[in-house]
Queue: 2 jobs
Job 1
Amino acid sequence: MYSQKVMNHFMNPRNVGRIDLPSGSGEVGNAVCGDIMHIDIKVADNIITDVKFKTFGCAAAIATSSMVTEMVKGKSLQEAEQITNQTVAEALDGLPPVKMHCSNLAADALHAAIADYMRKEANKLGVS
Amino acid sequence: MREIYMDHSATTPVDPEVFNAMIPYYTDRFGNASSIHTKGQRARQAVDQARSQAAELLGASEREIVFTSGGTEANNQAIISYLSNNPDKGRHLITSAIEHHAVLDAFLHLAKRGYELTVLPVTADGLVEPDILKAAMKPTTALVSIMHANNEVGTIQPIKELAAVAHAGGAVFHTDAVQTVGKLPIDVEEMDVDMLAASSHKLYGPKGVGCLYVKRGIRVGNYFHGGGQERGLRPGTENVPGIVGFGTACKLAHINLPERQTRLNKMGQRLKEGILNSIPHSRLTGHPVKRLPGSVSVCFEFVEGESILLMLDSYGIMASSGSACTSGSLDPSHVLLALGLPHEIAHGSLRLTLGKDNTEEDVDKVLEVLPNIIQNLRGMSPLCN
């Protein structure tokens, strides 16, 4: 059912956890549908220097979360914004069709974290 | 790695004695049971013998057994064929919210065609209460169908009481006993059911065969159209090897039932208590006592069922879940929701169903690895701090 890459990321997920004082945080999904993804990012000089996730959900939800953290670490914010749910799924050698909608939200969580960071930066400028 | 199969409510392995009994009917004794010649008559005798073995397990007479392709067909025939064959009966039907889809969807099919359908709620333990059925009965109620035991949560229904209520209201009573035949003692006379569906592969028989018990005097009618097999109630050349396997499985179940029931009850009890005692935020689903022997169904908060299954599978442990990811839809199982569990709890469901070949070591292994799996997944969960 799942590719070897999905199983690898599910069984040995990368970058699990939370970041203390993250530059930005994003959370998508809800417990009723059975998938919640939370991503924290640390940003320095426009580069995502650290990223961590916590996910409630099936193997696809956990594997896509793990994969997106691996894809984005060390990338610029502009590069990170290019990552889509589709490219995450492709990087995992694909997902079963039924999982493409419900459990493939990791890029959305990443974009939410970046948006949160941008908002905070804008607020800082507004204050100064 | 040793495989630990704990999904016996999904299917069971074919008993070697069953398999050996079937083999000649694929090769040397391949005859069509409708043929006059020797090969045909050998097949006929084998089908007759299997019928008597199935009848004995159910406490029925041979003429009351109709072999089908399995539980789904038996349930469809009991519901759809009975009603199409008895158009003079009322147009109101009753079933429960936790039935298998083979029953529920047959009723929904009829509801779309003008029948009035009442779907009874269940208690938090998964019981259909006779008083609730009584209140739902109408003068026009033609058929009531309540499963004997639930496949997901294992709750055993008070069938005798429910059948009595249906009969008092003038309705015919059918029960889907796919999960109980071979696991619990069954006596159709004592239960006073009019129809009962059974499936071979749940009791160490082959897949693709089952039967419908039809009480003498109940005019069920045929679902398929064709030849005169099964006294016209199930046209189509008999699946002789399958029927022989099913009959043999019934014979073995009849012999082994009391010992297996006691053993599985005890092993299931230890597994259930071990899980609930070692894993916080876990709860049993279904009835605490009135449940299938060896059926343990639990929900773990903050984690999702498919993830649990895949982690267990990596240790060679095979189980199932009613989470959305495993039900093939976006919702968790209709059974767990009918018990009143919130979606987020139902997503974390796990069902372990023991069988005759499971050992105490298997239970030990699950109790050793499951707490770590849940802890590990909770460590990843944003719901759990």
Job 2
Amino acid sequence: MTATSLEAPPSKRFSLGGLLKTRELGIVLALTLLVAYTAIDNSRFLSGQSIRDNLLNTAILAVMATGQAIVVITRNIDLSVGSVLGISAFAVATLMSNNQDLPMIVALLAGLAIGAVAGLVNGVLVRYGKVPALVVTLGTLYIYRGITYSWAGGSQVNADELPRHFLTFANDSILGVPWLVLIALVVIAAGSVMMRNYRIGRELYAIGSSPPAAELAGIKVARNLLTAFVLSGALAGLAGVLYAARFGTVDAAAGNGMELNVVAAVVVGGVAVFGGSGSVWGAALGALLLTVIGSALAVLDINQFWQQAIVGALIILAICADRLVAVRIARSLRKRDAHV
Amino acid sequence: MSDIDLDQRPANNRSAVLKSRLTSWDSIILVLTVLVLIIASFTVDNFGTSRNFTFMVLDLLPIILIALPMTMIIVTGEIDLSVASTLGLTSSMMGWLWNQGLSIESIIPLCIVIGAICGVVNGFLITGLGLPSLAVTIGTLALYRGLAFVVLGDGAVADFPWNYTGWVTGTIGDGAVPNVLILIVVLALIFGIVQHATPFGRSLYAIGANAQAAHFSGIRVARTKFWLYVASGAVAGLVGVLWTLRYSSARADNGAGLELAVVAAVLLGGVSIFGGKGSLPGVLGGVVLLTALQNALRLEDVSGQALNIVTGSLLVLSVLLPNVTSAVRGNWHRRKLRQASATSAQ
């Protein structure tokens, strides 16, 4: 009896890992096909400028998707990210326009801090208030947006009020890679390594697979959940700074409705909404796929209005694929149990 | 053994307290609503006028109608985030069909059918394939809104017949009662009776409390949920028609973002997101409260966007307060039990 229960987890982890690899391979395949088809139609799609634009457009979404993936893996959701982006973008833009000499790193840290506080509020309400994440973050979606609106009123921060080094940050590059993309890559890599190789990451997966089992196994659920929400908030705050730097003009509506794009990227990227499976880099690939679809439609001269419908169809396709994988895992596990 | 007993008693007690707290949240909301209405009509200029009443009812219309089936869906433990996009798609289709030269009398039922078909797709994906409703309806949220743009682009169709657009914004006999209020009352009565006075309605609570137990006690869980999504789609289609007629403008982005307002109103009304708990009167109170507050603040020249803070806080408090009070009571109860066992041991 003890022998079987000791043997079961490694074999499950192995098959899960194998199947998940194919799951993310699916996104890569879809991405490759899309890029190849578009490039054959119009070779300029693979030009340096086009690739650069696509990556720049993906960066902000991918940073938010990284945080969202971590939260969704724990079987929670963070709907407030669009509003956190808004409040951070407006706060940092105001800060920079009032203090022209502040270095860029201060702006980045300020955004991270604002987001982390917003995420901490979410986490505390979810864990200690015992309020479901969907309700808390739907509530704070309204609250954070409302705070930004009452602060900003109808005003906005224009590009000419912002210091030059802040605005050029978005387009400056190091070794040919724009800062924006570099930051996104660092965030994705750090998130992936954390979730894959570090104790906290594995514990977050365990919580998502079964919260009561994780608690019984001695995992500090409260602390880990707080970390997940703080990370998601902080990354949304960071995305706010990147948003302000890239677009220059910031009003209280910045990032409005973005939460659905972020959740879409995460779901398309193979993170199951029931938690416990998926990966950060899969979510980032999801963000890239959604962005490339948009630009590919423009290049292929297909009506831009199809974009959202295609995204919707992709989300449903992705969930169906996850369901298929889950059914197959369950069947193979049952078969294995039968042999034992 | 005794450890388990001690742990279980407060848990039972907690759920009982939670239940009574949740039912009382309904009454808190209703009292709050009446208070806001009374205070606003005395302190806010023009709030109590019949003209403002008509505007308020028109503002109320989309949220309250979509909230009726949404309440049932959330009671069963599911969710439908695609309603606002269904609204947009029917609005687009209405404009397109009107441009094709169909008569408005045939367009309106057609649009409701289109809404119902959107619901059928949701229902099939969720109950037929067993996919999670949150993810599915986020998908169809994007899909239906996208199709709305495919149908109509970013243009608008505005030349709907005056007698229809006038009916939606008009009042009965040019008095104080808006025409659409009849529609709201009739639909609310139907949904209220079905939810609170029929076996079908009771089965929704059983499904929300424990779908598996409901299945074993003979309730057709999948079929019930399926029809709820069809009803939700059909009502969203109807609201799409009314929205288009009210603003006399069929646009693809009509009603964008409304889904979150509806879910917020339903949860504010005391319905549990986990299913199994909540009542329609509480939800109706929640919708009226939000709309009345918004209306009063707008008349006082307060930005409607700042009101978001109130909406969000109420939403979080509606779940937080019962939990906090029950936790406090649970602690108190446990301490009392411990004292009792200590004295009996002596």
